[in-house]
Design brief:
The complex is a heterodimer of chains A (235) and B (337).
Chain A: E1 2-11, E2 14-24, E3 29-33, H1 40-47, E4 55-60, E5 63-64, H2 70-75, E6 78-81, H3 93-100, H4 107-120, H5 122-126, H6 137-149, E7 155-159, H7 167-182, E8 186-191, H8 194-200, E9 203-208, E10 211-217, H9 218-223, H10 225-230
Parallel strand pairs in A: 3-8, 3-9, 6-7, 7-8
Antiparallel strand pairs in A: 1-2, 1-4, 4-5, 9-10
Helix pairs in contact in A: 3-6
Chain B: H1 2-25, H2 31-56, H3 64-129, H4 134-153, E1 164-165, H5 172-190, H6 193-203, H7 205-210, H8 215-241, E2 243-244, H9 251-264, H10 269-285, H11 290-307, H12 322-330
Antiparallel strand pairs in B: 1-2
Helix pairs in contact in B: 2-5, 2-8, 2-9, 2-10, 3-4, 3-8, 6-8, 9-10
Classes of the chains: A alpha/beta (235), B mainly alpha (337).
Chain lengths: 235, 337
Amino acid sequence: MLELENVHVYYGAIHALKGIAFRVDEGEIVTLIGSNGAGKSTTLNTISGLLRPKEGAMTYLGKDLTAAGAPDIVRMKLSHVPEGRRIFANMTVRENLDLGAYQRRDAQGIKADIAHVFELFPRLWERRAQVAGTLSGGEQQMLAIGRAIMSQPRLLLLDEPSMGLAPILVQQIFDIIRAINREGTTILLVEQNARMALSVADRAYVLETGRIVLSGSAGELMNSPEVSKAYLGGR
Amino acid sequence: MRWTKYLIWLAAAGAFYALTLVLSNAGFISRFMLMTMVQICIYIIMALGLNLITGFTGQLSIGHAGFMSIGAYAAGFLASTYGARVSAALTEALGAAAGGAVYYIFILATLAAGALVAAAFGVLLGLPTLRLRGDYLAIATIGFGEIVRIVLLNTKALGASSGLPVKYSVGWTTAFWLMLLSVVLIYNFVNSSHGRACISIRENEIAAETMGINTTKYKVMAFALGAGLAGLAGGIYANHMYLIHPNSFNFLKSFEILVMVVLGGLGSITGCILGAVVMTVMNNALSAFPEMRMIVISVLLVVMMIFRPNGLMGTTELRLPFRRKAAGGKEDVTHGL
């Protein structure tokens, strides 16, 4: 479904991604794990068109992503929940969801999808007329995810959905990620919380300073001594 | 619903306009007051444009007087160069009365031309500079305003430092209705999906981009529309003031417009109208004491920062009471669970 090959990304002189290659197949949950500064968010930002690769190939559903801008990529049914939630703080929950459907014109379908988001996140229904900046961190994360699925993505990029959340909320968010996946949306998940990420994912890639150093099924990586030493605090 | 609301507003505006005519004919409104009212209209149009750029789209611009002078000079140049000839030809062809009416259309066309030229400059300035953020964009726009002023000061064809004389041909009637037209234009733009795209850029540019909003396009669009309104205001100014001079569109003028928008509330249409009224009335009331003026404005801003840090209106609008009910009723539609 999504395939990256030899992707290089620079921030000015800094070489952030040094030839990344991986693929995501339809229906999977794939996770990228790694420590701070490994290039996880950079990878997602590059896929969704916020950054441009200097070299390399990216194809999504047979189409080239390297030359497409962010609006085109959303139109190709690929949606990105950026790091730090980035909700529209001065707009209501409802208006945030409306903006998620910005590129759609089917009023009926939008209405149905908003109802669906409220079904996934009953908390958001309670808060629908509230200004989004007044929501708690967990609710904001739910809103960010809900807003992203309003564009009906086939592939959803999630950047650290567990950031700054209480453990019980993390559990809840991951349950919802699984639910969204079961409904047929493929998910590419970036996480620092490697144990949590590996527990929901089918496959995983480990990033280190701009390179992929390990890959395999989630179960394999969970048991691999390198990963458990570096990321899972294992013995 | 929508149309009844428009009709109510239109009737209110018409009644206000009729009242001003009656009062000025009866001698209750002096010429100085009428001039202040025209200036209020000019500054409302200016503030609406800047509010779209800075208040709704979140791009700090301090070169708005530059766009105003471009509109003023474009409209003024057309009127002063061709006005006499057009007027003479029309009078000869159609007689004095009909010729005068058509000449008025010519003047309106020069105003439109001024607005279009300014909007074109808005696009020209916007495309390269909108990659800049915050302070850097502000500095680039100040630079633009100054460049325009210096170029005009040195262009012989436009009167250079002695200014460009323009025949008086736009008064209260034109200014008032054009101001109203601008309000309707901005109100509809802001409440359209384009307007929401602009607001989402202000709220969070990265999130807007991941929603599939073409941020560059909307920033340039806001810049062009804002600059076009400034050009329109400039054209009214030129045709009302008898003489335009590059130095009346200096940095301080840009700053004054920004103060109106900030005072009224960034992102509020009624707020920036209020800001323009307050600032213009105060400027004219204190015109005999120019030093006092700056002190009073500074004190006003400090007081505002203490009591209303988001401006007089914040981001809210003054509304007719029946609107709120309509918004409340719409809420339940999505509950299709």
